[in-house]
Every structure is written in structure tokens, then in C-alpha cells.
From TrEMBL:
The keyword Transcription regulation applies. GO terms for biological process: DNA-templated transcription termination; transcription antitermination. Belongs to the NusB family. This is Transcription antitermination factor NusB. It comes from Thetidibacter halocola. It holds the Pfam family NusB. It comes from the Bacteria. Gene3D superfamilies: NusB-like (1.10.940.10). Residues 20-155 form the NusB/RsmB/TIM44 domain. Keywords: RNA-binding, Transcription, Transcription antitermination, Transcription regulation.
């Protein structure tokens, strides 16, 4: 019987960096909406001041995968109308995307970018962005809500994966 190989340290580091890139992308998309700043300005700020920045003495923020961060940002902006429509269809009729928390809106746009325009498997997108939801809302039920909405969006964007 073959044993499943444990991922290498390099593979684990790459996964961690992609996870960090997703979290940064949600923060950046939120900032873009809140401030009205364009993609290039917000991306530059994140790359110059957030990636690997020191938060407390001796404690640095995790480096993110710059290419993944940039791709998620660009695709979220390019496909925003389609992603927002998918999100609306996944939400209860009384809760259009404009009425949900702006952090969740940014999260759905980032996740939607991976579902619509990138090769990330839908199940990975769902798991990763539920983790992001937990990072922003550690006390609440938002992760379950995110899971349900992203499952609906993933089935619409990539039905062949289910």
C-alpha cells in the first residue's frame, strides 16, 4: 500500500504565501472600495508597506505570493460585474451584495476572481476563503455563510468540478 507523501517544506511555504496573498487581496479590495483609490495605487501600497512588514517588534507579517496577489486583484477588478452578479444569485433575495458587510463583499470578489478567471480548484477556493473569513470574523458565523455562498458561486462558475 502506498503512503501519501507529506508535502515538502517548500510546498508548505508556497501554500502559506498564497494564503497570505488571498488575505492581503481581500484587504486591498476593501481598501479600494472604501477609499475610491485605483488598483495600481492600492497594489503598490500593499507591496511596498504590507508584504513582510513588521507589525510588532520582531514580529513580521507573513510574506505573500506577489504574483498570486496581483492576479487576484486584477481579475477581481476585471470580472467584478460578473462576480457581483454571481454573488447576488448566491445570496438570499433580500440581501443583495450592496447590503452585505464590505469585508465580505471584498472576500467574495477575491474568491470570485479565482473561480471565474484562474485555475484554482473550487474546493481550494472555498476552504481558503472560509479561513480568510475566520481571520476577519473570529467570533461569528460568517465562515459558514461564506462557505454556502462560495459553494453556490463555484457550482455556477465551474460545474464540471462537482
Amino acid at each position: 500500500m502506498m503512503r501519501k507523501r507529506e508535502p515538502s517544506a517548500a510546498t508548505l511555504k508556497a501554500r502559506q504565501m498564497k494564503s497570505a496573498a488571498r488575505l492581503y487581496a481581500v484587504q486591498a479590495l476593501f481598501q479600494m472600495e472604501a477609499s475610491g483609490q485605483p488598483l495600481d495605487k492600492v497594489r503598490r501600497e500593499f507591496l511596498d508597506h504590507r508584504f513582510g512588514a513588521e507589525i510588532d517588534e520582531g514580529e513580521a507579517m507573513v510574506d505573500g505570493d506577489i504574483d498570486h496577489f496581483s492576479a487576484v486583484m486584477e481579475q477581481a477588478v476585471s470580472w467584478q460585474a460578473r462576480i457581483d452578479q454571481m454573488t447576488d444569485r448566491a445570496l438570499v433575495e433580500k440581501w443583495p451584495i450592496a447590503r452585505i458587510d464590505p469585508v465580505l463583499r471584498a472576500l467574495f470578489r477575491a474568491a470570485g476572481a479565482e473561480l471565474v478567471a484562474m485555475d484554482t480548484p473550487p474546493k481550494v477556493v472555498i476552504v481558503e476563503f472560509c479561513d480568510v473569513a475566520r481571520a476577519f470574523f473570529p467570533e461569528g458565523k460568517e465562515a459558514s455563510f461564506v462557505n454556502a455562498v462560495l459553494d453556490h458561486m463555484a457550482r455556477e462558475a465551474k460545474p464540471e468540478a462537482f
